[in-house]
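QA checklist item 7 of 12: single-chain prediction sanity check.
[x] sequence parsed
[x] length recorded as 67
[x] structure emitted
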Amino acid sequence: MADIQTSTNDGAAVISQERNRVLRNTYWLLALSMIPTVAGAWLGVVSGFGRAMTPGLSMIVLLAGAF
């Protein structure tokens, strides 16, 4: 005889909680990744390093940083 699985609302609640946990963790990681981005942008503006570079050199620095 085959086992019959019944569907309950508890299963939907577990799936919903798991989805919410994954979304919460995703948004936390996104927020944490913005911290070094903001710090780097702030450091670049405060130091004035971008004004001292030629456009070609700034492109090389950008590509090296992106890589």
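[x] summary fact logged: The radius of gyration is 24 Å.
[ ] second reviewer sign-off
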